[in-house]
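User: Could you go from structure to sequence for me? I need the amino acid at each position, not a summary. Structure tokens:
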């Protein structure tokens, strides 16, 4: 029996993989389009209720549409959370959206990372349109407040103003960056002996893509 060349088997496997990936992409695009149509329908229903002077019902529909849009933004942010650095593993990213009256409101995406063979732990969180931003903004606009806090200082992170908190004794730290006054990117670490790992992870976050996801 004539054997099949190895490169032929490899090519066939690659073609099958390509087909599967293409199908997955098409399903995702279709799902997003269908969800977008659902949002449009909700907005249109809210408009009709408004024209009928059913203001309470119209408000409910439009608030529901806002929640759906925020869910889309949260899912986009989740995709922007970086892969683990070499020697690290990552948990599955999570995302959520809440109204301004619930848990501070806003759109949130986060992902946890653990160093292999060690207790070092990192969490990246991207949060937008939340009152929690005001706390960090107060420190960024008032250096005296930042300097009064132990183990805290103002820093520049990829050209953006940021806040660093790190305690070598406690082996924990945090970097916070505010983008355009409305989006907070935070990298937290525990059981870390070197604060450079915080900067390595914040550097892996594409700030421009985060801006685009929340502007779209």
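Assistant: Here is the amino acid at each position, in order:
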């Amino acid at each position: 029996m004539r054997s099949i060349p190895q490169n032929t088997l490899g090519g066939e496997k690659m073609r099958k993989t390509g087909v599967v990936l293409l199908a997955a992409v098409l399903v995702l695009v279709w799902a997003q389009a269908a969800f977008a149509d659902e949002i449009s329908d909700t907005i249109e229903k809210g408009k009709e209720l408004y024209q009928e002077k059913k203001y309470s019902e119209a408000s409910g529909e439009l608030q529901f549409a806002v929640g759906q849009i925020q869910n889309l933004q949260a899912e986009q942010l989740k995709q922007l959370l970086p892969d683990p650095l070499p020697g690290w593993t990552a948990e599955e990213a999570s995302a959520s959206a809440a109204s301004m009256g619930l848990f501070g409101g806003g759109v949130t995406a986060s992902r946890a990372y653990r160093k292999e063979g060690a207790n070092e732990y990192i969490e990246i969180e991207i949060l937008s349109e939340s009152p929690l931003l005001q706390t960090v903004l107060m420190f960024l606009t008032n250096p005296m407040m930042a300097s009064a806090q132990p183990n805290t200082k103002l820093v520049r992170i990829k050209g953006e103003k940021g806040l660093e908190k790190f305690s070598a004794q406690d082996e924990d730290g945090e970097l916070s960056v505010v983008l355009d006054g409305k989006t907070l990117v935070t990298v937290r670490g525990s059981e870390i002996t070197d604060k450079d790992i915080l900067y390595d992870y914040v550097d892996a976050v594409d700030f421009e893509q985060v801006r685009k996801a929340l502007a779209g």
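One structural detail worth keeping in mind: Helices lie at 6-51, 55-80, 133-141, 143-147, 196-203, 207-215.
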